[in-house]
Amino acid sequence: MLLYVIRHGQTDYNREERLQGARDIPLNDTGRGQATGNGLALAKLTSLELPLDEFDWVASPLGRTRETMELVRTAAGLDPLAYRTDPLLVELSFGDWEGQTLVEVEAHSPQLIEQRNKGKWQFRPPGDRAESYAMLAERTDRFLSKLDRPTICVAHGGVIRTLFNRIGKIAGDDAAVIDIPQDRVLRTDGESIGWV
């Protein structure tokens, strides 16, 4: 398995440290620049392994990942729309907390923030659609099991954290707090994983 992964570019929610989860928040100008830079970097990296058109290109269906994918493909000299989406790559849902900062959440739910801090991997925020990282990891497993050729995907910070858990064998609570940059490309061959 050869997989390159890019996190979507910055949004205003990222800049404000708001939990965006499954909300459809667009990229800001910084995020657009990050996406273009990742496309240029990816074109150089993959030329050492396979031509770009031999990869399966897939993104989360949320707007920020699709916009990132289209900017990445444009910068790499490819048709910006020639990719597919997969709902398994949607970001972790923060349920009722989406749109808030953790400081705002702590002001009204300090006991829940305390629970989260004790075990972030298993913690599930309130709300019908909310997920834990453990739940997201099960979706990531399903995505990985479907890969049948070298793939380039644009996903979210939570999805990438689950890759570090599943492929990098990093403990869940440690993986859940890894800083995931928006201006780097991640590479894994199914056994090793790291930023390139």
- Widest sheet: strand order? 3-2-4-1-5-6
> What is the CATH architecture annotation?
3-Layer(aba) Sandwich
The CATH homologous superfamily: Phosphoglycerate mutase-like
The number of helical elements comes to 8
Mean pLDDT, to the nearest integer, reads: 96
Tell me the strand percentage band: 5-15%
The CATH class turns out to be: Alpha Beta
Q: Spans with pLDDT under 50 lasting ≥5 residues? A: none
Shape: globular
Helix percentage range: 40-55%
Please indicate the count of domains. Answer: 1
Going by helix content, strand content and strand pairing, the class is: alpha/beta
Termini gap: 17 Å
Description:
With 196 residues, the chain is an alpha/beta fold. The protein has one domain (3-195): Phosphoglycerate mutase-like (Rossmann fold, 3-Layer(aba) Sandwich), CATH 3.40.50. The protein contains 8 helices and 6 strands. It has helices at 12-16, 29-46, 63-75, 102-108, 110-118, 133-146, 157-166, 172-175; strands spanning 3-7, 56-59, 84-85, 151-155, 185-188, 193-195. A 6-stranded mixed beta sheet has the order 3-2-4-1-5-6. α4 (102-108) crosses α5 and α6 (133-146) packs across α7 (157-166). The radius of gyration is 16 Å and the shape is globular. The mean pLDDT is 96. InterPro entries: His_Pase_superF_clade-1, His_PPase_superfam, PG/BPGM_mutase_AS, PGM_Phosphatase. It holds the Pfam family His_Phos_1. It comes from Hoeflea alexandrii. This is Histidine phosphatase family protein.
